[in-house]
Amino acid sequence: MTVHRVVVLALDGVYPFELGIPSRVFGAAGGRYEVLTCSVDGGPVTTNADFAVTVGHGPEALATADTVLLPPFDTSLLTREPLPGVAEALSAVPAGARIVSICTGAFVLAAAGLLDGRPATTHWAVADVFRSWYPQVPLDPDVLFVDDGDVLTSAGAASGVDVCLHLVRRDHGTALANEVARACVVPPWRDGGQAQYIEHPVPVASANGTSATRQWALENLHEPLSLTELSGHARMSLRTFARRFNEEVGMSPGRWLIQQRVSRARHLLETTDLAVDDIAGQVGFATGTSLREHLHAAIGVSPLAYRRTFRGATASAG
């Protein structure tokens, strides 16, 4: 089994929680990953808490990375230009390595020119600053993470867990990602995006919310599930249901349903030999063609190409 090396570059002002995410998530993947932590000069780094961190490696570790991960640092230290030593350190990263940022780590990548013309995200609270500094980067502050192939960016705090689990899933399939999620006691996939967490009036939780209907929908994905049926199950008018659903989930019911159908289809493509038309029926798409269209829109590949990729990754891991 080939071990994938993840090198975490810790900068002064780093948030301790996010700094520990890669070791925790990748460390639960059964020895498939090795996580090293380095700084730009090999010395200790300050955190945004009342302690510093001594790292085990200097910037030379970046030259050995398969994946480089930049955790966030205190917003008071954000600068438009590259931070001292960072550009030089990143220049050592191998050409084929993946680069991943969490939260304000996206500022480091943008300052280094690594996000020019590429879709990206960062914490919603600093999105306006990011846009003003780096207008050449197409920013989407409404998502938890953006996977642009060899460069991935994620939003604040716990979205670092989301993107690391996504990488495990991308590398080794759903089954292992679910095992890692269980070991870390986190959900393997979170619905919605940052819109759920942006400061706005939040409805008081009650029995009149949409969570029960969402659970019912997940149990009945094979059915067409119109908005009328969903609102009827929730015992709300169409307008009230759509509004409350969007407030709670951060997207429309229709978009959420498609996301759940695609997610279920991906799982079946990875874990079964079912034909594409059969999978489409099980997840509520009318035809195999509809599944192909939605899967391509979501991740840019056909069902068969997706299955080959994950079956190959799983077989290699085994």
UniProtKB/TrEMBL annotation:
List the coiled-coil residues. Answer: none
Under the heading InterPro entries, the entry gives: DJ-1/PfpI, HTH_AraC, INH-QAR
Domain HTH araC/xylS-type, chain residue ranges per copy: 211-309
* Superkingdom field: Bacteria
Read off the PANTHER family from this record: ARAC-FAMILY TRANSCRIPTIONAL REGULATOR, HTH-TYPE TRANSCRIPTIONAL REGULATOR RV1931C
Q: What is this protein called?
A: Helix-turn-helix domain-containing protein
Q: Which organism is it from?
A: Streptomyces anulatus
